[in-house]
Amino acid sequence: MPEVMVKPHEIEINEYESGVLVCTAYGSPPPKVSWNITGLQSNVTLKQTQTVVIEKPLQSHSNKSNFDNKKPVNVRNVTKISQTLYLNEAHGADNGYVVCIAENIVGKSRDSTFLRILSIYTPPNIVDMEIERRFFWCIKYRITGVPPVTKSWYFNNQPLNMSDTIRDLEMANQVKNDYETEGCLEIQRATHVNDGLYTLIAVNSLGQFNRSVEAQFHKDVKQLIRPTRLPKGLPHPPHPSISDTITGEPEETTRSQKVLNFTE
């Protein structure tokens, strides 16, 4: 398994300043080293160096001739690879962990550093906005801006009224800073009535930013058909949407409908 280490483990710089992070990996065969820099808004450059070092295990006393000649046993070459990440013009949106990964055919290892960027005032920006289905429907968003932003929602270009089934919930931010806001517009029991254009507007003293998403909840809902066992002797209701015969002896069917025949 390759070994990997990032230095420093935490770095604090002012926005628009520069910083340097070094990731060092050891492994045989030579590991591939990469930084997970997807989404970083800072100007980033990478430089890689590679050297070979000799790893010498303890000498074996059972092999007297080698021991007397001071020749190590089972010597193997281990490749050392260092990749330096130069962070130029650091952006306040990049607060958080940056991960370095070392991987070869033996396995994968990772280490990380915490990047803390002290922000100056910046206008609002809605970085992410997408629809997710959990136990309810959620329009997930992430906003950056200093001073902290105020938010408002619109539905089909009209103010969206919040209720017990439609709520804007802010999430606890793992990165403790005043720069970023994450949240979810929670829509419970969504139907075709809730389909339409949702717009989020973020405002602070430096400006305004808006972003919209088109939602069609009812088209994504997969209805689950659960057959109900009726008391013996009662007629069965039609099930035109069910395409399989369940239990019992199959009856004559048409291409458009099959009949459920339950027997006790």
From TrEMBL:
Coiled coil: none annotated. One of its GO terms (molecular function) is ATP binding. The keyword Transmembrane helix does not apply. Signal peptide: none annotated. Residues 228-264 are annotated as: Disordered. Gene3D superfamilies: Immunoglobulins. Transmembrane segments: none annotated. SMART domains: IG. One of its GO terms (cellular component) is plasma membrane. Keywords: Disulfide bond, Immunoglobulin domain, Signal. InterPro entries: Cell_Adh-Cytoskel_Orgn, Ig-like_dom, Ig-like_dom_sf, Ig-like_fold, Ig_I-set, Ig_sub, NTRK. One of its GO terms (biological process) is homophilic cell adhesion via plasma membrane adhesion molecules. Residues 2-119 form the Ig-like domain. This is Ig-like domain-containing protein. It comes from Oppiella nova.
